[in-house]
Amino acid sequence: MKLITAIIREVQLDKVREALINAEITRITVSRVSGHGQQRIEEMYRGQRIIPDLIPKIKIEIAVNDSFVDITVDAILRSAKTNGTEGVVGDGKIFITPLEECIRIRTGERGGSAI
Predict the structure, then answer these.
(1) Which stretch of DSSP H or E encloses residue 76?
(2) Which domains does the chain have, with CATH numbers?
(3) pLDDT tens per residue, range 42-79
């Protein structure tokens, strides 16, 4: 089992969600987060150029069995890029971490079948 965490642009959420649904990945958690990396956005405020410290993003978390990792990652990669196939700085990142245990609260079911 793996936990796939994707940080993407807010405007790409609908595209990513549709791509995941088409790939038969329907159980996701979505959170609004802020952060920064290489992406820099300059704004004008009272005649001065400022660069805000934190940029709003979307965090998607998906717990999957090992056989669905590549399917999930491919769906996110295809749909999260803002400039077609090339992408641009600030499109986001995908993290894949081992998931030690998953327990369904309703039934007490454990492991891959609880996902």
Answers:
(1) helix 69-80
(2) 2-114 (3.30.70.120)
(3) 667 777 777 667 888 999 999 999 999 999 999 999 99
